[in-house]
Amino acid sequence: MRDNSLDIPARAWAELLLLGLIWGGSFLAIAFALREIGPLTAVLHRTGWAAALLWLVVLLRGEQVPREWRIWLGFLVMGLLNNVIPFSLMAWGQTQIETGLTAILNAFTAVLALPVAALFLADQRLTGRRLLGVGLGFAGVVVAVGADALGSFDLRALGQIAVLGGTLSYALASVWGRVMLGSLPPVVAAAGMTGAATLIMAPVALVFEGVPSLALSIDAWAGIAYYALGGTALAYLLYYRILAMAGPANLMLVTLLIPVVSIALGAAVLGERLTQAAWIGFALLALGLMIIDGRLPRRLMGLLPAGGVPEARQGDKGAP
User: Fold this and answer.
1) pLDDT tens track for 105-151
2) Cα 224 from Cα 228, distance rounded (Å)
3) CA atoms within 13 A on the CB side of 80
4) Closest Cα partner for 110 from 15, 251, 14?
């Protein structure tokens, strides 16, 4: 029987590829900004400009601004888990490792979200197939990082650990967002989250990195504009459009596109070259994600009936 689970609209495919390009390019844009500003200031720019644009969209659409304190508390925690912590850890980590490797490790978010969701949400079970996919994902990360790095604490190893810490924060955010903000329109949730993150980041960046300088090069401003307005605000809007058109299982395919784009841009623009171990690790991680998704193995085995629906809902993925 024919598998229709990948028969998503052509428009959704186009927007999925666009989202992969946008998020994949964000790592290069961040690298340009980090040449002239610190990681915390880079995050402040990212959340601040994105929040301004998203709240403008909220007002232009006439969306209702939440008034309940519980929702604003949800924004605060979501901003911390989905923006402040992962953006900061990954920005600092990217000062120590290649942009492509950062993107590979960032893809671990989609794997780590499963055991985290199973721990906190009753309807998210870890089946045997999912456990196999999670195991391959963990193996891929270990190979990409390198066995030697696991026992060392030099800056490169700490950079990789920081990026992985960011993926854990993203995974926790997916659970928090579903429980606390799931009833809100996506643009309102994104605006509230980035706005709350900006309120947290402003004093943190000021204390540790001083007043942000506006005397930056065109390259730095272009990087900031790209990752804040394109890679955050626009990407969130695009993300939820694809989610509505194609569903969460198809949306997870973007996780496989982001590292490929980032690796290609890092090699072409920055002259980066990843190790063979990083490539093997990415292959294992990609295989784990495909097994978690479940459709490719079922298609190969001829077990998915026509019109079959991919198993279980995935939590939202954070921006890179």
Assistant:
1) 999 998 898 899 888 887 778 888 889 989 999 999 989 987 666 56
2) 6
3) 9
4) 251
* Inter-residue contact 4 to 307 (CB < 8 Å): yes
Report d(CA 198, CA 194) in Å as an integer: 6
Helices (H), the chain: 10-33, 39-61, 69-79, 85-94, 99-106, 108-120, 128-145, 147-150, 155-180, 186-209, 218-225, 235-251, 254-270, 276-293, 295-301
Residue 167 has pLDDT above 70, yes or no: yes
> Which residue type does 187 have?
V
Which positions ≥6 away from 149 have C-beta within 8 Å? 156, 157, 160
pLDDT tens-digit map of 230-280: 999 999 999 888 887 877 767 777 888 999 999 999 999 999 999 899 999
In angstroms, the Cα distances linking 242 to 65, 186, 308 are 24, 12, 19
DSSP structural state of residue 278: H
**Cα separation of 127 and 252, whole Å?**
18
Query: How many other CB atoms sit within 10 Å of the CB of residue 131?
Result: 15
**Distance (Å, whole) CA 230 – CA 122:** 35
- The whole-number pLDDT of residue 242 equals 86
Q: From CA 82, how far away is CA 197, in angstroms rounded?
A: 9
3-state secondary structure 198-233: HHHHHHHHHHHHCCCCCCCCHHHHHHHHHHHHHHHH
Cα(27)–Cα(43) distance, rounded to whole angstroms? 13
At 111, list the tokens. Answer: 């794997």
Tokens at residue 294, please?
């479940």
Cα–Cα distance for residue pair 64/247, rounded to 1 Å: 25
Q: pLDDT tens for residues 190-244?
A: 999 999 999 999 999 999 999 999 999 999 999 999 999 999 999 999 988 888 7
